Amino acid sequence: MPAAQPRPQASDGLKGTGPSSFLEMWRQLGSIGRHPGSGGYRRFAWTGADADCRDWFREQAEARGLVLELDRNGNQWAWLGDPSAGDAVVTGSHLDSVPDGGAFDGPLGVVSSFAALDELRGRGARFTKPLAVVNFGDEEGARFGLACVGSRLAAGHLTVEQAHRLTDAGGITLPQAMEAAGYDPDTIGPDPERLARIGAFVELHVEQGRALDLTGDPVGVAGAIWPHGRWRFDFRGEANHAGTTRLADRRDPMLSYAETVLAARREAQLAGAVATFGKISVEPNGVNAIPSLVRGWLDSRAADQAALDTVVHGIEKAAREYADAHGVHLDVVRESFTPVVEFEHALRDEIVRLLGKEDSADLRVPVLGTGAGHDAGILSASVPTAMLFVRNPTGVSHSPAEHAAEDDCVAGVTALADVLEGLACK
Ligand code: HGY
Ligand code: MN
Ligand code: MN
How do beta strands 88-94 and 289-290 pair? Predict the structure, then answer.
């Protein structure tokens, strides 16, 4: 059994009027792309595990009589009602993961969306607007380095040329990977007509932090997403023999890299921000060889753009000084960037009102900021978007230890059902 399984906790909504309850969906999905050694998930874009997740999504849609649509960018949409009627209420999230990611980041939103639809059907809700559950492709950017590729393409924040240039560690381009997975890469591009049909997109997501654990609430509403980005630092030195090259004769890029990692922590601390070098590649990567090239990827995030700029500029400045001191050449490339997102207040406040109704669970609903990026953030410039967060008692995410208690998953499904009912059913 995958780690962090919510155990059965009866609730009308989860008994499931649909073909499979929350727990059954969770179990089915939980076996896909999970590494037996680490217990983490390795569901990368356009791989076999991604295909299996897509098959699972299709089965859930078909089993509920929803019309499955694959858009020009490979995102999956499961429709109830006629999307051309417009003003659709859309929910869902992503199914891909970071390397050795947890079970909840992404899948909790998709499973909860199908379960919330089942709950609304169980309530006899009458839909007056089209409703869709969406699975956005390649949200984590684990394979090609850019976050939220599916939603960025749809929103026109990523050009076709830029997308076609995305390349994985093995030199496979995004078009080649899509083609190998049976998708036509020549169809990708902005999808304004599709987004124009959406009146509201509400994404439920496990919280990636401990705010709800500290407030004691099972569910919260997103207020804003910090600006954040990814920068690649290429330190080029001189390959040489680890055993015979005098220290004074070395141009060792690993030293510059190591000093830059420490500088990143210092700069982030000073600015009240975060900075992480979590990924590195070394050439030739031999124990007895001084590297010729050390590539480090920086992820940095801050509450506002000025602070983020200060941190990244400070890190780059320090890195250049270290590189110069060691006779190392440095290139810095920004690979991914998402500006600050302030979720639309009208939709946010409507959701807070809907969740505060006296006849629903007496949820006090805190409004939270987050440093985590989401498809809802990418779409927020094109579509009224909102997010619900489900409590994560440890706050741990992007790790096999990621967890949410089943009571909180139930509260999340009920809250999402309340919101969807308030937005799509009159
Ligand atoms: O990196 C993020 O914030 C998200 O998990 N893609
Ligand atoms: Mn994530
Ligand atoms: Mn996510």
Answer: unpaired
